[in-house]
Specification:
CATH topology: SH3 type barrels
Order of helices and strands: HEEEEEEHEH
Strand content: 25-35%
CATH superfamily: PRC-barrel domain
CATH class: Mainly Beta
Oligomer: single chain
Distance between the termini: 36 Å
Number of helices: 3
Length: 121
Amino acid sequence: MTDTPISTHSLISADRVEGTAVYNAEGDKLGYVEDVMLHKVSGKVAYAVVSFGGFLGIGEKYHPLPWSMLKYDTSRNGYVLPIAKRQLEEAPSFASTELAGDDTEWRQKVHNHYGAPPYWI
C-alpha cells in the first residue's frame, strides 16, 4: 500500500464514475454519468449511460454513449464528449421507465450515430 492519492490512479471503480459530470468541448455541462454498461462475456465497457435534459429528473432522457467517446478532463473533474449538443439531442435515447436495447442492432445504431468504432470489434 502506498500513500499515493486515489485521484492520481489511472483506474477508477464504476461506482465513482456514476454521477460524474459530462461536458461538451465548449465546456457546457451536458449531464451526468448514470451508469456504466459492461459486456458480460468480454469484460469490455460497452457504453456509459448519460442523463440529459429534464428538470429535477422529470423529462430526463438517458443516452448510451460509446465509452471510447468520453475523455476524462482532470481540470473539469469530468468527462468531455467531443460532439455538439444537437448531435446528443438527436442520439438514440430512452426514458427512465425504459431499458436500453441490448441487441446487436441497438448497439450498432448507437455506435453509428457517434461514428465510434464498436467495442466488440
